[in-house]
Amino acid sequence: MANFTDTQELIYKMLTANTGKHMLDSGGGEGRNWQRNQRKTIEDFNNEAEEKFSFDAKYKEIYREVSVFHFLSELEIDSICETFNDINSNSDNWESDFYGVSWEAESYLNTFEIENFRSWNTYNGESDLSQVLQGATMEIEGEFYFLIQIHGGADVRGGYTDAYLFKSAYFNDGFIHQYLYEYKDSAQLMEEIEDGYHETLTDYWDESKTYTAKEVLTILND
Questions:
Q1: Residue 148 lies in a domain
Q2: Is residue 1 part of a domain?
Q3: Which residues contact 201 (CB under 8 A, 6 or more apart)?
Q4: 127: domain range?
Q5: Predicted TM-score (pTM) of this structure
């Protein structure tokens, strides 16, 4: 059995956290992200590919999906993160300026000199991540940190986890992941296929069906 880091254990907790239901959302009975994720073990997430590539033959589009589990796994948890996360997990006053952050946890952050604070939501930009992330990037005592929520619901307007604090790995200053771009469009992916980077793609609508790179290029050029 693989040994998982504290970061990976926390990401799994976030991915499987019950973020609620609403009669007006599109999740149906079992269609929310957190419901689907609860069917998986942490080993399942660890064993999935960092990147998945699929092809829509009808509309001639190539898609890339980046595993949120792997995308966040390089982050670290230090004593500042541990204290913030413990406070935020055991608070009862949510009258904070930040969604998913308690008043007590925000007060703890305010004991530090925070610089370059920037909030974001991946839904507002082009992103290949398997689930939407919401949060903020900041510098605390000269080090980069990320305040992160994972969207576990059906509709992006709600259904986020509580916020957790992570520290950037020393080689990722200011970025969550050093290797994976957040977005690649169909034209970029076609170039990668032509250059031989991807040999097999799954069907966008039916994961049991696959295409060879040659088949994809033939359909695209038809």
A1: yes
A2: no
A3: 53, 54, 55, 62, 193, 210, 211, 213, 216
A4: 6-221
A5: 0.91
